[in-house]
């Protein structure tokens, strides 16, 4: 007996490689593609800034367009998810709800609630893995029931698992003829809201546009433009890589506009055609495998996004300092390298991973000794690719709370920037107030004489702040503190080394 | 048979299970099996002292404290001196600290009843001055104790430095004078001064084995020299470079002195823009190594590149070197020439020139090198493989950030890791930072 199905989009905002949607279409006589915009729920479980809302709305618009082209439509229903479901299960005589399995605790809880509702109201629930390369349970099983806590161990387990499942076939218009789409009139009531409806800024100034179409275009460019894909060497960091990337894909993976399995197999094909490969293409697919690593650890570690009660995280006596945190967040640290990065983050919603390392180190183990949880919340609000496990995992890594290297290193906010971009083009772009400083001063403008500052049209302490810490003092001290903590909490430190 | 069953009950129950139910179960078994009266009258309260003591030693303090209010006997045992030898006072202000704090009532109780029993004491304080002052207040009350180990630990900022020197030193001297058996002292980042060291020495010269006092700006070379002169059992010492002197090394090498095991030196510029550092004569180092051939000499450098000129111009017996900041190519070259005893080298950063030559020289001349860490440097793949080939399997710790290695015509990163693994005799990968 074919189902009447609601396919619930949460992430997974795409039509290509969507096993759950495909399963819905193959088992139903009618499918309602629904996105429930439960603002209350979303804001209670994560911080979402304006740029992220825009990205989401753009992705929904794109999904709507692509579904229309296949003869269906997207229904965006606003309200609390449980009551929305109750109403529409009855209204549309729904017998099945399909949704992607997600590993975040709040999404797992949502799924459990929906299943309970299913038992109460008499509909089935089908959830399949679509957001990660592998079913994380299989990784856990192969590692004796616990997540591999080092990247090396993780790679070893993956080598035992073999390749991930191949992407499922693309959907066609036939699928939506055989399985009826919702009544055309509904699309009118349930259109994608406009920014003004959500009371956010009217326009996004970020160069990143959401959606599956944009994601797929970038994927093609990523695979062709990147000369290194052909020669298999890792790119040295060049100043331009700090600028908004036209081939970057991370926000599209976070929202599920792009399928990680699709990307994996595209890369594998290229690699397989090369003449002298001897190893799994770890460096090429690094981005995907790191993501998978953090997803796996997060799925099986309680309190992963907190320090307290987190078994893999060092318990460190971070300083609570709202004022200093605010200065870091609002790009007023007085260190141009840090401030330029935080400015780009706020304006565009994406920063290069080395930039993330720099500001994360500065906030935590390097200079301010403020908790990584605070940094994680700021990133969650501002980053387009904010992701539950990756964000927390990286913050723990960069604050040296977990996943240790043998030796703790601290990035100097002057030297590290200068090394990456000696002419300071990046600083000049994002902190125009400093643009007239010569390159030798631009990373430490407070060292310029008063005369030189006047010439540059920017007096430090007036037009641009003094540095908020003495980096040398602060970092020396923090290095010792970190050493002490690791010695004391040796057993925790050993877990993820 | 009955006792065995009793023991099983203990193991299976969570420590927090109410003592009352344990007692009831025992009686129930007793009545079930019709044991004689002498068995049923035996209860948990009448276990022998040593048994209860042993069990208490496994319990965290909170559970022990709960157990102590069960009956008088358990309460007596709770207060046995043996259970109060070690204590760590955790002092923090809830408004500014993430970590828990020892309850003030407990602190009072310890001072009242157990101050005399304390032997291994540490104070962990957060970034507030109040916590450091509270630590000093407790210290001043430890009058009748014989403390062996004392540690003052700042977990966030060096808060002891905000306490007045007078307050701090007078509290510290209470312990120095009264303990007379101090063996191990960790007081980094405190306003320790020369007179307090004199007091320490006057009372504890026979027992002092370990002294860690990095970043104590009020101590002078003369102050630490006094310690070396009198405390002949000193095995471990940690201090800042500015108080290191030729006289100190000679004092540590005198005949009466035991072998020094561990000397840690932090090299920090005391004043901004300080470029000049005093030198230590080669003869002084030689004397030390002759006297203590196995000594580990650990140097932590926190200088800027221009400040290294004084160092390693002559042979220096350093074993562990850590550069917390950038280090110049020239300095690394000198290390290769003049540090034959080097065991571990960590370079956090360098300039943009490849370090191939310097590394190869280090491989040639530092035959004891077993651990190396490199970050934010540049080394060509070819140069790195040459280095690893020369060191071979003796490199048990090789921690190189992925970005350090520059691929060249001979080697890609993938090939490199196989080659290196081959020479090391084990699977090796560079350290990776996650691609975010």
Automatic annotation (TrEMBL), chain A:
InterPro entries: Crypto/Photolyase_FAD-like_sf, Crypto/Photolyase_N_sf, Cryptochr/Photolyase_FAD-bd, Cryptochrome/DNA_photolyase_1, DNA_photolyase_N, Rossmann-like_a/b/a_fold. It comes from Spheniscus mendiculus. GO terms for biological process: circadian regulation of gene expression; entrainment of circadian clock by photoperiod; negative regulation of DNA-templated transcription. The gene is CRY1_0. Belongs to the DNA photolyase class-1 family. Its cofactor is FAD. GO terms for cellular component: cytoplasm; nucleus. Keywords: Chromophore, FAD, Flavoprotein. FAD binds at residues 246-250, 287-294, 385-387. Signal peptide: none annotated. This is Cryptochrome-1.
From TrEMBL, chain B:
CDD domains: FBXL3_LRR. One of its GO terms (biological process) is regulation of circadian rhythm. It is found in: Cytoplasm; Nucleus. Its main location: cytoplasm. Pathway: Protein modification; protein ubiquitination. One of its GO terms (cellular component) is mitochondrion. It comes from the Eukaryota. Keywords: Biological rhythms, Cytoplasm, Leucine-rich repeat, Nucleus, Repeat, Ubl conjugation pathway. InterPro entries: F-box-like_dom_sf, F-box_dom, LRR_dom_sf. Residues 41-87 form the F-box domain. This is F-box/LRR-repeat protein 21.
């Amino acid at each position: 007996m074919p189902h009447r199905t609601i396919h619930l989009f949460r992430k997974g905002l795409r039509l290509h490689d969507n096993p759950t949607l495909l399963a819905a279409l193959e088992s139903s006589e009618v499918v309602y593609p629904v996105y429930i915009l439960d603002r209350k729920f979303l804001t209670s479980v994560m911080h979402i800034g304006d740029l992220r809302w825009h990205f989401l709305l753009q992705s929904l618009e794109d999904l709507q367009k692509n579904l229309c082209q296949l003869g269906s439509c997207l229904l965006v229903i606003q309200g609390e998810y449980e009551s929305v479901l109750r109403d529409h299960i009855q209204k549309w005589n729904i017998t099945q709800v399909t949704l992607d399995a997600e590993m975040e605790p709040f999404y797992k809880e949502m799924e459990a609630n929906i299943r309970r509702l299913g038992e109460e109201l008499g509909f089935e629930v089908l959830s399949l893995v679509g957001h990660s390369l592998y079913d994380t349970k299989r990784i856990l099983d192969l590692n004796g029931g616990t997540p591999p806590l080092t990247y090396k161990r993780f790679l070893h387990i993956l080598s035992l698992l073999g390749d991930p499942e191949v992407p499922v076939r693309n959907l066609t218009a036939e699928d939506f003829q055989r399985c009826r789409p919702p009544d055309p009139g509904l699309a009118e009531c349930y259109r994608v809201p406009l920014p003004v409806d959500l009371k956010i800024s009217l326009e996004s100034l970020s160069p990143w546009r959401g959606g599956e179409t944009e994601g797929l275009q970038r994927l093609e460019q990523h695979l062709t433009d990147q000369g290194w894909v052909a020669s298999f060497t890792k790119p040295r960091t060049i100043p331009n890589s700090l600028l908004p990337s036209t081939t970057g894909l991370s926000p599209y993976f976070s929202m599920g506009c792009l399928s990680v399995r699709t990307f994996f197999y595209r890369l594998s094909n290229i690699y397989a055609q090369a003449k002298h490969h001897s190893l799994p293409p770890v460096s090429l697919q690094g981005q995907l495998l790191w993501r998978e690593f953090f997803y796996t650890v997060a799925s099986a570690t309680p309190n992963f996004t907190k320090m307290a009660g987190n078994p893999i995280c060092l318990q460190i006596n971070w300083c609570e300092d709202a004022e200093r945190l605010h200065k870091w967040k609002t790009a007023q640290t007085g260190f141009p390298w840090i401030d330029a990065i935080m400015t780009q983050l706020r304006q565009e919603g994406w920063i290069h991973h080395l930039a993330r390392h720099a500001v994360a180190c500065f906030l935590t183990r390097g200079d301010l000794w403020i908790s990584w949880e605070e940094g994680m919340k700021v990133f969650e609000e501002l980053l387009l690719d904010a992701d539950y496990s990756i964000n927390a995992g990286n913050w723990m890594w960069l604050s040296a709370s977990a996943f240790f290297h043998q030796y703790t290193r601290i990035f100097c906010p002057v030297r590290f920037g200068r090394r990456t971009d000696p002419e300071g083009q990046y600083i000049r772009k994002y902190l125009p107030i400093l643009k007239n400083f010569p390159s030798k001063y631009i990373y430490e403008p407070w060292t310029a004489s008063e005369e030189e500052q006047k010439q540059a049209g920017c007096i430090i302490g007036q037009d641009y702040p003094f540095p908020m810490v003495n980096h040398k003092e602060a970092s020396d001290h923090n290095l010792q503190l970190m050493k002490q903590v690791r010695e004391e909490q040796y057993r925790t430190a050993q877990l993820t080394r | 048979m009955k006792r065995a069953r009793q023991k099983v009950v203990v193991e299976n129950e969570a420590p927090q299970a109410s003592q009352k139910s344990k007692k009831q179960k025992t009686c129930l078994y007793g009545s079930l099996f019709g044991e004689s009266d002498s068995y049923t009258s035996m209860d948990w309260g009448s276990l022998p002292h040593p048994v209860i003591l042993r069990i208490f030693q496994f319990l965290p303090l909170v559970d022990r404290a709960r157990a102590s209010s069960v009956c008088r006997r358990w309460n007596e045992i709770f207060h046995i001196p043996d259970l109060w030898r070690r204590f760590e006072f955790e002092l923090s202000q809830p408004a500014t600290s993430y970590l828990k704090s020892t309850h003030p009532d407990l602190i009072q109780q310890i001072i009242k009843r157990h101050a005399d029993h304390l032997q291994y004491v540490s104070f962990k304080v957060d970034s507030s001055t109040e916590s450091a002052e509270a630590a000093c207040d407790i210290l001043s009350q430890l009058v009748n104790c014989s403390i062996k180990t004392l540690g003052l630990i700042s977990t966030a900022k060096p808060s002891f430095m905000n306490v007045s020197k007078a307050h701090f030193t007078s509290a510290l001297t209470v312990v120095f004078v009264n303990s007379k058996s101090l063996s191990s002292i960790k007081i980094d980042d405190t306003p320790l001064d020369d007179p307090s060291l004199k007091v320490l020495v006057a009372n504890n010269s026979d027992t002092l084995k370990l002294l860690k006092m990095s970043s104590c700006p009020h101590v002078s070379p003369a102050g630490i020299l006094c310690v070396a002169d009198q405390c002949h059992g000193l095995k471990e010492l940690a201090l800042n470079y500015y108080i290191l002197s030729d006289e100190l090394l000679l004092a540590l090498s005198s005949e009466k002195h035991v072998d020094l095991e561990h000397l840690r030196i932090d090299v920090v510029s005391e004043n901004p823009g300080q470029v000049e550092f005093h030198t230590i004569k080669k003869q002084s180092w030689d004397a030390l190594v002759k006297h203590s051939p196995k000594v580990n000499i650990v140097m932590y450098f926190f200088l800027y590149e221009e400040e290294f000129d004084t160092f390693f111009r002559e042979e220096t017996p350093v074993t562990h070197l850590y550069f917390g900041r950038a280090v110049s190519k020239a300095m690394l070259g000198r290390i290769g020439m003049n540090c034959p005893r080097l065991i571990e080298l960590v370079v956090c950063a360098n300039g943009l020139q490849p370090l191939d030559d310097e590394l190869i020289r280090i491989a040639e001349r530092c035959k004891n090198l077993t651990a190396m860490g490199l970050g934010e440097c540049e080394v060509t793949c070819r140069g790195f493989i040459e280095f690893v080939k020369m060191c071979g399997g003796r490199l048990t710790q090789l921690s190189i950030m992925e970005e350090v290695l520059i691929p060249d015509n001979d080697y890609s990163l993938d090939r490199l890791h196989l080659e290196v693994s081959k020479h090391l005799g084990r699977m090796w990968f560079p350290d990776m930072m996650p691609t975010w």
